[in-house]
Amino acid sequence: MRAPDRLLRDLRERPSTSDRATDLYIAVLAVLVFVVPLARWATLQLAPAMAWNVSPMHVALVTGALGVAAVGAGRTRGPVAPSAPYIDWVVSGPDELARVLRPFWRRSLAGVTALAVVAGLVVVASRDTWPDPVAAVVLAVVVIAFGLLLAVAWLAGQSRLALPAVVLVLLAAVAGWPIHDAWTALATAPRWWVMVVPVIAVVAMLSVRRVVVVLPPSRLRTQALRWSQVENFAITADLASAADVLRGRTRRGRRWRPAFGAPILVRRDVVGLLRSPGRAAAGVGLAFLSGLLLGPAHTAPTPIIAIVAVALSYAAACYLSDGLRFTAANRSRPPVFGFTPARTALQHLVVPTVLLVVVMSGAAAAGGASAAGCGLALLALACRAASAFKGLLPIEYLTPIMTPVGEMSSLRVLFWVADAFLVCMLVGATILFQADLWTGTGLLLLAAVLVGFWARSRWAR
After folding, report:
1. Which of 160, 164, 213, 418 has the most CB within a 10 Å radius?
2. Which sequence spans correspond to the domains of the chain?
3. Contacts of 411 (CB under 8 A, 6+ apart)
4. CA-based Rg of the chain, rounded to a whole angstrom?
5. How far is Cα 97 from Cα 75, in angstroms, rounded to an integer?
6. What is the pairing mode between strands 402-403 and 406-407?
7. Beta bridge partners of 402
8. Is the distance from CB of 184 to CB of 129 less than 8 angstroms?
């Protein structure tokens, strides 16, 4: 063992037998309390949708989106995630980089594989008939191989290698066809051509070493320090500051001057979106996906599609409303251009409102639900405004609340942090799933107005 490794191991407290038993108890309890009920709920939600005739194109869209999400996540927090002291003392040393970082990669790979296995079990358990045993094994192998492919895409995103990332995203999208065929073959006999996915995954795994060695220690250290700050802010329920840490710094377009005919803050919001094309594209893309799901959400036998559509719309509103968030965070500072804070906030609402309404309504028109797209866009933006205007966490929320089942103040903090998101999810998903198209549109518009008054009351405080 080398000196830096020995020193870091000596600095850490070695867990005793009771510590290991406690960790095992916590892990088992977490699985029983969180994983099993969530898997059971997902099974109940997916069971009514098993009769749907899902085409391979739909599955390919989902797998491609997962590949894009894996690459994007790697740019913020990759699978190779050592701590900052380990990077300074060990990774930056003379030893081979691939060997030093191998344990971290294997740990993340095991986590991704476990998630793929759980997802496969949930989907198979949602069927109302027993599958063919051999076909079930083939499907399990294909799903695990797809998980390995996503793990490599995650690593490529962390390494910021454009060509491997694009190739892996395309391979993830193409894997949708064999996954669809492996699923449909559960009731009959296995289709052996789907084993091309494990072959592709093995080839991708062979490139891991080359991808790891191009990871500069400086980038690993930046990610480690940034994630440490995010964890510190998240512990104190300051999610806005945590998001600021994760948000990339804008360097392009510093000399751009908006000159087209519109209110000055509207022009500044447009230029801000152009200066951050990644965030703007993510917001527009999420809004588009949310609009596409609105048509099936009204006719689906399960509310899970409505839940996904509402969650995507809220995420899109968060990506497109940076000007509103900045205004709320800097309200105590002198006003910009002599505008009152209320007028400033109203002008910052124009660009995200127009983008969300146009994109979501246009995408929802494919399913005949363009009016519902408009209503959901307004509801999501109103909830986003309510979240941005609530200010800092009240100090009294940190007062301990002792109950027979333990201290519960953290639960109150959690509800305070996610109150606007929960309102958007509960109200939006319930209306989309329970009401017909035009009644649901009217209820969504009414809910958007009521949440707007709620946001205004928070602003007035």
Report:
1. 164
2. 37-223, 237-246+259-460
3. none
4. 24
5. 19
6. antiparallel
7. 407
8. no
